[in-house]
Design a protein that fits this description.
heterodimer; A: 118 residues; alpha/beta; Udp-n-acetylmuramoylalanyl-d-glutamate--2,6- Diaminopimelate Ligase, Chain: A, domain 1; 5-stranded mixed β-sheet; 5 helices; 5 strands; globular; B: 140 residues; alpha+beta; Heat Shock Protein 90
Chain lengths: 118, 140
């Protein structure tokens, strides 16, 4: 699905990177713990999170992600948006909570990477 | 490439917001050098975790990245408290990070294990009360 479809499904607002909304996305992940994102995420292009600080943007950049969705209408600071713009990332914010936001995308065909732990 | 390329960064220990800047810069530099994306990803994640550790535990330090024909080597030096038990520190989930770091999305005890996971070689040299030097290599 495209980032534009994600925006529509989540009723999200585009805060940055509006020129890249037609980018095709194949999988996503959700976490507030950046250490876990760095440990377990592989080839997921979208990060859904309720955590708002500059390290969220840097973590996504390190993982070569294309889009961050902030849940619960959270809004990053202008400094964070500038950081995201520098790396060409799309930033969305949705009024949905984490569980529902992930569920909506999953049930519309956007999967995780299917790996198990333990 | 005849001579290895060396990049050197001061990691500011007082500012959690700026942590990771050196890793972002290394990522850009490696991209400009035409290094393959998977190597860049592994180097930048390992270095980013190391940089975060330096800010959380050691009030910053110095990061050096050496690009040669065979590998990208990352050397992180700090004058922090040192690691008392390296074996314990390497276990997933073991953390001595303060609670406020967890609310920032880190401190889950994944940093050092992640650095090992993403690199081909990792060595920790640490003296309690003096500091820590971590050497990592990602081979081409």
């Amino acid at each position: 699905m495209t980032i534009n479809t994600i925006r529509d499904l989540l009723g999200a607002e585009v805060l940055c990177g509006g020129e890249s909304l037609d980018r095709e996305i194949h999988s996503a992940c959700g976490s507030d713990m950046m250490s876990d994102v760095l440990a377990y995420v592989k080839d997921q292009a979208v990060l859904m999170t309720g955590l708002v600080n500059a390290q969220v943007i840097r973590t996504a950049e390190m993982m070569d992600m294309h889009c961050i969705v902030f849940v619960r209408s959270k809004k990053p600071s202008q400094d964070m948006l500038d950081l995201a713009a520098e790396s060409g990332m799309v930033i969305l914010t949705t009024p949905r909570r984490m569980y529902e936001a992930c569920g909506i995308l999953y049930s519309n065909g956007l999967k995780g990477n299917g790996e198990l732990n333990g | 490439m005849a001579e290895p390329l060396v990049f050197r960064f001061e990691v500011d220990g007082d500012n959690f917001t700026s942590a990771g800047q050196a890793s972002v810069q290394v990522k850009k530099n490696l991209r400009e050098l035409g290094v393959d994306p998977e190597t860049i990803r592994r180097v930048s994640i390992a270095m980013y975790e190391g940089e975060i550790n330096m800010v959380i535990h050691a009030k910053g330090g110095v990061a050096e990245v050496i690009v040669s024909d065979e590998s990208v080597e990352i050397i992180l030096r700090d004058s922090g408290p040192g690691i008392a038990n390296i074996e314990q520190a390497m276990q997933e989930g073991f953390s001595t990070a303060p609670d406020n770091v967890r609310s920032l999305g880190f401190g889950a005890g994944m940093g050092l294990p992640n650095m090992k996971r993403y690199t081909d070689y990792m060595h920790i040299d640490s003296v309690v009360g003096e500091g820590t030097t971590i050497t990592m290599k990602v081979n081409f």
